[in-house]
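Worked example (supplementary).
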Amino acid sequence: DAGVTQSPTHLIKTRGQQVTLRCSPKSGHDTVSWYQQALGQGPQFIFQYYEEEERQRGNFPDRFSGHQFPNYSSELNVNALLLGDSALYLCASSSGLVGETQYFGPGTRLLVL
Amino acid sequence: DAKTTQPNSMESNEEEPVHLPCNHSTISGTDYIHWYRQLPSQGPEYVIHGLTSNVNNRMASLAIAEDRKSSTLILHRATLRDAAVYYCILQSGNTPLVFGKGTRLSVIA
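After joint prediction of all chains, the assembly is encoded as:
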C-alpha cells in the first residue's frame, strides 16, 4: 500500500513565476491538507480539500490556491512567487473523520531565486 | 499559534528511556493530544494520540495528566533512529494541525 506521494521532490523557480505541486493521498483517504514548512519552523497549515472543495484555509494569501480531483489527488498552485515562498511543502491525507491521524508525504522542496 | 509548550531540545543516551514533556494548560474538553515526529529530510510521522487515558502503541506511550494540562511522550528505549523533532499538538474536531517548533531530540550512542 503506497503512502502519500508528492511530486516533484525538488524545484527551483524565479520570482514572479508560478508553480504547481502534486499530491496523491494514501489509499482509502479522501481528505488532503497542504502545509508550508520554512527552515527551522514547524509546518504551517495552508488549506484542506474534501470532496473537491476547499474546506478550511489557513492564513495564506490568495496567491496560494489548490484543487482536488475526483480520485482525491490534489494540486497546490502558487502564483507570483516571492523569495519568502521558499520552503518545504507538505501534503497530508486522512479519512476526514474527527481526530483521525494525518499521514504526511515526503514533501516538495521549493527554492525561489 | 500553537497551544502547547515544549522544550526546544533534549538529549538522551541510546537504549535509555526518554520522557518528552508537553504543557497544554488551555486544553478544552474536546481536544485530542497528538504527537508527531519529523525525522531529518522527511515529512512528519504520526506517533500516538489520546484524549484522557494513557495510551500505548508499538512506537511509544502517552501519559496524560489527570487534569489534562500536560502530557508526556515516553520512548521506552531510544535508538539513533529516534533522533527527530517531536511535536505535541492539540486537535479538536476536524480543525487543522497547528505545529509549534517542537522538541529536537538528540540520541547519543
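Two points are worth noting when inspecting this output. Strands of chain B lie at 9-13, 18-23, 32-38, 45-50, 55-56, 61-64, 70-75, 84-91, 103-108. The interface with chain A takes residues 2, 32, 34, 41-46, 49, 51, 85, 87, 91, 93-102 of chain B (CB under 8 Å).
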